[in-house]
Design goal:
Layout: E1 17-21, H1 25-37, E2 41-45, H2 48-54, E3 62-66, H3 74-84, E4 89-93, H4 99-107, E5 111-114, H5 120-132
Parallel strand pairs: 1-2, 1-3, 3-4, 4-5
Helix pairs in contact: 3-4
C-alpha cells in the first residue's frame, strides 16, 4: 500500500520531530518521505557521529535508527543517544529479533522492529502505533 494513501487517515497525528539515522541512502530517503506524508517532521542523518552532534542542539520527540553501525555496536549507539536525550528510541533491522533486540532494550530502546525495504508502509504503521501510545518526551 502506498504511504500517500495514509495522508487523510492520519491528519490528527500531531507533527512529531523525528531523527532518523540510517546509512542506507535509498531506504533512508524513502522512509523519510513516508514519515513526512503522515505529518512527521524528519531529520535524516546517515552517520552516527553527525546524529549525536545534532542531539546537542535539537530536541526530538522520537529517534529511529538502523541496527547496523560499524565499528560501533547498535547497543552502544542506543546508550549514547539515551545519555543525550529522553526521547523514545526505535531500532529497526533487516535481521530477526533476538539477542541484539534485548541488548538494545537494555541500553534504552523502546522498541526493536524488523524492516523490509520493500514494505515501508508496514514499518510506518508499526511506528505510528508505537508513537500514538507514547507520551511526548523532550530534553
Amino acid at each position: 500500500m502506498d504511504p500517500a494513501l495514509y495522508s487523510g487517515r492520519f491528519q490528527q497525528i500531531s507533527s512529531k520531530n523525528v531523527l532518523v539515522i540510517d546509512s542506507d541512502v535509498v531506504f533512508g530517503q524513502a522512509f523519510k518521505s513516508a514519515l513526512e506524508r503522515v505529518h512527521f517532521s524528519v531529520n535524516l542523518q546517515q552517520d552516527a557521529d553527525s546524529a549525536l552532534q545534532l542531539l546537542h542542539h535539537h530536541n526530538y520527540d522520537l529517534i529511529i535508527l538502523d541496527s547496523f553501525w560499524d565499528p560501533t555496536s547498535v547497543e552502544e549507539l542506543v546508550a549514547s543517544i539515551r545519555n543525550r536525550c529522553s526521547a523514545p528510541i526505535i531500532v529497526y533491522a533487516t535481521a530477526g529479533i533476538g539477542e541484539i533486540a534485548n541488548k538494545c532494550r537494555k541500553a534504552g530502546a523502546a522498541a526493536y522492529l524488523v524492516k523490509n525495504s520493500k514494505d515501508i508502509p508496514s514499518l510506518l504503521v508499526k511506528i505510528i502505533a508505537l508513537t500514538s501510545t507514547q507520551v511526548e518526551h523532550r530534553v
